[in-house]
Amino acid sequence: MRMLALLLALLPATPVLAQSAHADLTCRFTGTDFVYDCVVRLTRGGQPVSGAQVVVGADMPSMPMAHNLAPVKAKPGRQPGEYHARLDLEMTGEWAVKLRLSGPLRDLLVLHYEFDERGARPVPPRSRTGR
Amino acid sequence: MDDFTLGVLTNIGLFSFLALSAYLLLLAGEMSFGQQAFFGVGAYSGGVLTALYGVPLPLAGLAAMLLGALAALLVGLPTLRLRGLYFAMATLAAAEVARLLFELFRFQREIDGELTGPDGTQGFRGIRWIFEHGVEPAEFLLLVYGLLALALAALMIVERSRLGTVLRSVGEDPGLAASLGVDVNRFKLGVAACAGALAALGGVLFAHHNSYIEPRNFDIMLGVHSLAYALIGGLGTALGPLLGVTLDIGLLESSRVFGGTRMIVFGGLVAVLLIVRPRGLLDEQLVHRIVRHSFKRP
Amino acid sequence: MLLDLLQNTIDGIASGASYALLAVGFTLIFGVLRRVNLSFGPGIMFGCYAATWMHLNFQSGLIVLALVAVAGAVLAGAYVERLCFAPHRSGSAIAAMVASFALWMQFEELVTLVLPRHVYAFPTLHEGAPLEFAGLTLRPDTLAVLGAAVVLCALLHRLLYRSRFGLAVRATIENPVAAGLSGIDTGQVFVRVFALASAIGGIAGFLIVATHGQLTPMLGMWSTLKGLLAMMLGGLGSLPGAVLGGLALGLIEAHSQWFLGPQLRDLTAYLLLFALLAANPAWMTRWTTSRSAS
Description:
heterotrimer; B: 298 residues; mainly alpha; C: 294 residues; 11 helices
């Protein structure tokens, strides 16, 4: 118990960042199986967030940890709040895209998108059931 | 160390809690396909407490462990008389019930103008306590491994003590243990509660590491995986399950060598390994030999 | 109201027929080996994927696809038997089951490597309108599934009660040691029963996939869970129990979906199993898992 308290005392008490970031994804199928060129649009409180480091990873919710995607560092795009990344997925289907943000704000966003031969669509609510 | 390696190491630590949970029950002679349910209970309860009620993580962790132990008793009490495959199937059924209940669980509050909270099959987003309190990935890793070290230390002390002998004897031959005065039922319930608490601790840490959990995270695959980790690593010591987790997740990360065939390679290796060492890599015989060798008089 | 009840019962029996076949496969292996093959569903999935591959590359007819599915399942079963169950015959049951789980992972990855799309269309047994009579709907392909299940069970019964092989199987189920002592090659019985169970599973898988018209990598897990559930509901280790358990599962699902909605459907089945196990009635718990200490 004491070691736990000690460990936690080491954590700096930085001010709380209340507002969370939001992101959406637009992806284009490049033609090669199954590589997608994606654009991430990052906002916070309605304003685009630029200068953040965005690392994009992905996992399949239906088979967690079964796929190994090397996380990709997204490159800032031309518009503020835009970041580009190329995702090499192992198969089509529903993926949970994980955006790890650092820099002006630290956060971890998880977005569910359905990837197919055309691109990626956000998964509509209530369509995700267990089996 | 880059964020990615930190993430891998953290995952190894997180799933070690679950593997240890399955290991404890295996020592007591029971095979459980359902420890992932307590992992989920820990994740959801810890997440709700920190994200919806601003409870600090340490407190939420303790509450999650308590709930995990209670849930384990809820499953353990009705199934006391069951053995072997019947017990395993009962735990599987209970875990699926838990997962399906998570799918129905919708509990949201407005935090900073946004609805946050578990939303059934949509999952539970916004578990951001560690981001809001400036916990760096390296610090979180330290926290996970610090707690894991505590758990390991406790388990290894128990193993060397009389309690550990009683545990293994209950696992090997409950009838004999009972004839020697052990209240087998009460003992098994105690072990189940500890295993539930351990899994729940892993769960609450998992929820905060990922910031997002959904019922699908806690399905049967996770449960059977944790059982497999415990068995592959070896049942001779609490380090065995850790070895199992490290082997699998470590192989996952080095799978660039194997391309997309990691599971084919690993699955084959596991099956072959179990032929040669049915009680795992660090099984009781090996551990006994190592301990005897290191304490031999010169 | 009565019409709904009848319709649900018909639907329940229809899906229950496939569950029954899956449960029979599990029970055959359990009865003889006292172990659960966690790769049973994935082996069936392997067979169905092989059939899909045939369909995509050769546009084969349904009969050929069914044969390929069965052959694939039997091949997968033989592989699993050699690697997971033969070596642990007199050893640890847990090791055998965990090994079969490891091979499950292999099958899942293998099929997604060869056919990476998440969903594949599979030819259906019957294109066209369902039959309607007296206000009830009946799809012809579910009739086919029911018919196939009945025929298979009848054939299995004949095999087990009218042939020498069947006698050997029943003797081994009853008491393997005694069977061995009376001259039965129990090793050969295990191998053959495994093949038989895999074949039945292959047919079940083919029927399931052809009825649904599509195949996903989730079939492995799905059929394992349904088969295990049905087997346990019917009382572990009994073949008539497996059939009844499968039908019961189908009926429970159909009726609970109607009255409680799709989300509570699976919940009801699992809760019922848990409650039954907790109550521990004699008919459910006759058999022990392994013959030797694990």
